[in-house]
Design goal:
The protein is mainly beta. 0% of the residues lie in helices and 32% in strands. The chain has one domain: Superoxide dismutase, copper/zinc binding domain (Immunoglobulin-like), CATH 2.60.40. The structure holds copper (II) ion.
């Protein structure tokens, strides 16, 4: 057996470097860190029903944002001027007068107030301003509210009420009179 050759074959020539790497792709956006917040729930569409013999029609969209729940309420068929609007505690619009929706949604046990005031119910949306043609829109973001199932500050499974009169901020519920529109906030 011949002595082991000391000559090892030359390493194969290293292959030509590939002519050119294709232009580097844009880096992928960094993946969300594992502890990222759970995604915000999808927006909720609410159909408003006429109550107390009104001709109200309309809808609302509720969307969870970083700043709270954004409520966009559009109604038609009611008298011009301001009309109180609130989230009420029960997602039940079954009664003709809307009272099945219960009281203002007030998980913090506060006094009634106007939105953005320091003392207010979480469900206080203020007033929707109705034009001469009977139509109006309210857009407001309520800090501290969410749309999560079962959360104590959630607007889910509650109701939006539009009142016959202006919410003047007075106690206990703003002197806004009867309930002329109601819509259940549900998925
Ligand atoms: Cu109300």
């Amino acid at each position: 057996m011949p002595a082991a050759s000391t000559s090892t074959p030359p390493p194969p020539e290293s292959p030509e470097p590939a002519a050119k790497e294709p232009a580097a792709k844009e880096p992928e956006p960094e993946a969300e860190p594992e502890a990222a917040k759970e995604p915000a729930p999808a927006p909720i569409e609410v159909t408003m029903e006429a109550k107390s013999g009104s001709k109200l029609a309309g809808k609302a969209t509720l969307e969870e944002t970083a700043d709270g729940v954004k409520v966009t309420l559009s109604v038609s068929g009611i008298s011009p001027g301001p009309h109180g609007a609130h989230v009420h505690e029960k997602g039940d619009c079954s009664s003709p007068d809307g009272k099945s929706a219960g009281d203002h949604f007030n998980p913090g046990g506060h006094k009634h107030g106007m939105p953005h005031g320091s003392e207010r119910h979480l469900g206080d949306l203020g007033n929707i301003e109705i034009a001469a043609n009977g139509e109006g829109k309210l857009e407001i973001t309520i800090a501290g509210a969410n749309l999560k199932p079962g959360d104590k500050s959630s607007f889910l499974d509650r109701a939006i009420i539009v009142h016959e009169k202006k919410d003047d901020g007075g106690q206990p519920v703003g002197n806004a009179g009867g309930r002329i529109g109601c819509g259940v906030i549900k998925r």
